[in-house]
Amino acid sequence: MSSAIGSMVDTAFKVHELNLWYGKNQALYDIELEIAKREVTAIIGPSGCGKSTFLKTLNLMARRVPNLRMTGEINFQGKNLLSEKTDLVELRKEIGMIFQKGNPFPQSIYDNVAFGPRIHGLRNKKELDTIVQDSLTKAALWDEVKDRLKDSALALSGGQMQRLCIARAIATNPEVILMDEPTSALDPNSTNRVEDLILELKEKFTIVIVTHNMQQAARISDRTAFFLNGKVIETGETDKIFSNPEERATEEYISGRFG
Ligand SMILES: Nc1ncnc2c1ncn2[C@@H]1O[C@H](COP(=O)(O)OP(=O)(O)OP(=O)(O)O)[C@@H](O)[C@H]1O
Fold first, then answer.
1. Helix axis angle, 158-170 relative to 188-201, nearest 10°?
2. Whose CA is nearest to atom 24 of ligand 1?
3. Pocket test for ligand 1, best of 52, 58, 69, 178 (most atoms within 8 A of CB)
4. pLDDT digit string (tens) for 177-233?
5. Which residues line ligand 1 (CB under 6 A)?
6. Which residue numbers delimit the ABC transporter domain (predicted)?
7. What is the distance between the alpha carbons of residues 57 and 20, in angstroms, rounded to a whole number?
8. Mean pLDDT of 253-258
9. CA-CA distance, 7 to 68, in Å (whole number)?
10. Cβ atoms of residues 195 and 183 within 8 Å
11. Which residues is 196 bridged to in the sheet?
12. pTM for this structure?
């Protein structure tokens, strides 16, 4: 199987022979994967197959877990993140992350979005105002919150919180946004809004999304990687994976026969 997902133009990540252990338990095996820039890549597979673990390797968040060990290469912006000393603050500026539940800080809407730029030293109020407005606009939230930017972010609805977290992630103008089941806690209406947003965001950002929702993967992703038992079983253009997969396990999973 080729590591390239279909005909790849420009890659954001090249992952090579990535293995990962939690203590003695191996969770990822010889992962070979290229992730295209400015596209949406969906990571699918049954519960426990290593999707979230893989996603968390891409921004080295996995390193926080005690007794975790990784070998191999994750090449990003010309560096192997696993072998070179990586400045995590800088890396997080380039790679934003969205989780299952919107998790805003207990601060105002404004301060949530301004958080990243401030960490990177921006103090100019006018510039911060512009970034906050721009990020909230790109996250399709500005109109709903523009009159209450000083209110607590915790007063927002679940769907609004998730869009706020997206605004917070894009405020540092990252290259990549990682999303771990970003709509699984949302109602259908909020899910649609976030999906529409993802399709808009891919014009500017590389998006990698873990999803259990196969219809979602089919609707919004350009490419899909199917994981099973810690291995990449098949990768390819989403249309092909969903209409004519090469591997039997992929076909069985997407047709709902397990998982
Ligand atoms: N912090 C951890 N410590 C030890 N083992 C872990 C840890 N996190 C995950 N694992 C194990 O690694 C394997 C992969 O888990 P992971 O959460 O990556 O799977 P997943 O495909 O994202 O699952 P789900 O769809 O249920 O979220 C599982 O066997 C899990 O028990």
1. 10
2. 47
3. 52
4. 999 999 999 999 999 999 999 999 999 999 999 999 999 999 999 999 999 999 999
5. 22, 27, 45, 47-53, 65
6. 13-254
7. 9
8. 87
9. 33
10. yes
11. none
12. 0.94
- Residue 200 carries which side chain, given as an amino acid letter? E
For ligand 1, pick from 53, 54, 227, 233 the residue to mutate: most ligand atoms within 8 Å of CB.
53
Detail the DSSP E strand segments found in 131-245: 176-180, 206-210, 223-228, 231-237
**Distance between Cα 24 and ligand 1 center (Å):** 14
State the CATH class of domain 39-52+85-254: alpha beta
Residue position matching structure tokens 């950002």 = 205
CA of 254 to the centre of ligand 1 (A): 21
CB of 28 closer than 8 Å to CB of 22: no
Q: Give yes or no for a contact between 54 and 43, defined as CB atoms under 8 angstroms apart.
A: yes
DSSP-assigned letter for residue 108: B
Q: Which amino acid is at 176?
A: V
Q: What is the DSSP letter of 152?
A: B
d(CA 179, CA 177): 6
Query: Could you tell me the residue ranges of all domains in the chain?
Result: 39-52+85-254
Give the chain's count of helices (H) and strands (E). 10, 10
Length of the chain: 259
Which two structure tokens, joined as six digits, stand for 108?
């105002």
